[in-house]
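Probable RNA 2'-phosphotransferase
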Amino acid sequence: MLDEKRTVKASKFLSLVLRHQPERIGLALDEAGWVDVDRLLAACAEHGRKLSRAELEHVVATNNKRRFAFSEDGRRIRASQGHTVQVDLGLEPAAPPDVLFHGTAAATVPLILRDGLLPMARQDVHLSADVETAVRVGSRHGRPVVLAVDAAGLAAAGHVFRVSANGVWLTGPVPPQWLRVQPG
């Protein structure tokens, strides 16, 4: 089994190939982001990243962000969200809670309050249902600041929200008038 360091390294590599660069190891995701598990494992091995089925299952099961999901039959795998390659996760529109949260680095706040939240290279803006998750996300790039998003107001204005398999709320660009800095 993988130790913690190898588990994190494998998770980061899987994020790279299942969200951003499947071609890096000769893979092609289907339109919903799925790839055959056996093909993934073979491609990893062919590119010096040998991983057993048990190790892959360990990475999926222990990832605290639940970044990956197996198909119901266990024969395919995909990233739950965060793709920069075009995929349709088939997520149905969902009514969001009144407020959602977005964690970011303090240095980006003035730009966000001017331009709003943009998906950047990703397909969607990512929001969380709780402040704690937003703080963790924002901490990855410096001192975190949490923005509260008036999700109820956005939904009433016609914005569509979807929720991924791992609980991340997804939507299009969020104009600045729907944002406020969360005290804390």
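thats it. The beta strands are 35-36, 68-70, 76-79, 99-105, 125-127, 144-150, 162-163, 169-171, 179-181. Residues 19 and 83 are 4 Å apart (CA to CA). bye
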